[in-house]
Amino acid sequence: MTVLRGPAVLADDVLADAVVRLEGGRVVEVRPARSGDPAAAGTLLPGLVDVHCHGGGGASFATDDPDEADAAAGFHLDRGTTTVVASLVTDGPGTLLAQCRLLAGLCGDGGPVAGIHLEGPFLSPARRGAHPAHLLLPPDPAVLAGLLAAGAGHVRHVTLAPELPGYAACAALVRGAGAVVALGHSDADHATAAAAFAAGAGSATHLFNAMRPWGHRDSSVASAALQAAAGHAAVVELVADGIHVDAGTVAAVLALVPGRVALVSDAVPPAGLPDGDHVLGAVGIQVRDGVARTVDGAVAGGSGALLDVLRFAVQQAGVPLPVAAAAASRVPAALLGLDRSSGAGRLAPGARADVLVVDDDLRPVQVWRAGRRHR
């Protein structure tokens, strides 16, 4: 049995002085502290849930080496992300098949990876971002069916551009597999994206990035996604790092659609490393002044862990800690059903014993996953 004490961030508030008791890999008690309890360890948060992550610490999820994928998950676990979904970038179908098979073997039964995210290859060439143009494909049900099969039930969400021919058939395949259709890397207008959300798309990939800019006379996936989120029909991803979106945008989105925002890291393999030259899938990327870009200047993912994103939201954008913590745990877990399958994303009796203890500056002090201490 483990007993942790400190301010505890619960569903919508902070219990100023709480005790959280862990036993058998589960949270068994959350209560106000009393005389005789251990000293406070720090502020207690639910373990973070990152549903869009490509790697970190020099290791990639887009690999043929299970040890490398395990190292990428370990990099984020050490920084408080107790549940990570491995994101794959656009590559050749054969390469993606092999990567899906490898990652599927790391999922389930307490494995280091909680699921797979296919970010490509069915994306708009006009909004490809860091994805290589020559490897993009129009939505192809046969190719997608093979990738879903290779994922063996562990593909949790798939990013698609709804304006492309073949979208409807591929979206139906994704939903039929029990996964979430995410709209992104898209040049769609508002009407096209709104129709896709009405037909069952459930999220937007890194809102505002790699999609048509939202102008007041030219609306886009961004406007349709926020409308769907306001109607509790979708969740929007936000890379709240001051690079993908600024502090004002972070504050506005979390105020406009509270409870419907999933903070994500979009971390790439060089996250946490000094400036240098690296690769993301089949693309070379450069990290300069802590920002990852392709050689032609496109932002190529995040350079930190999800806790860094949460810290920016709180300290730079002024988002209340309970709101930011929910957006980095409970909301993404519920989006992909990880709250049901593993009990992730909550600090409550019955939940998996995933706890992140942070100091006053929101830096990690302790990390517990399924009741085991990893930091």
TrEMBL record:
EC number(s) on file: 3.5.1.25
Keyword Metal-binding: yes
Coiled coil segments of this chain: none
Domain called Amidohydrolase-related: residue spans: 43-368
Listed GO MF terms: N-acetylglucosamine-6-phosphate deacetylase activity
PANTHER family: N-ACETYLGLUCOSAMINE-6-PHOSPHATE DEACETYLASE
Family: Belongs to the metallo-dependent hydrolases superfamily. NagA family.
Record's protein name: N-acetylglucosamine-6-phosphate deacetylase
Organism listed in the record: Aquipuribacter hungaricus
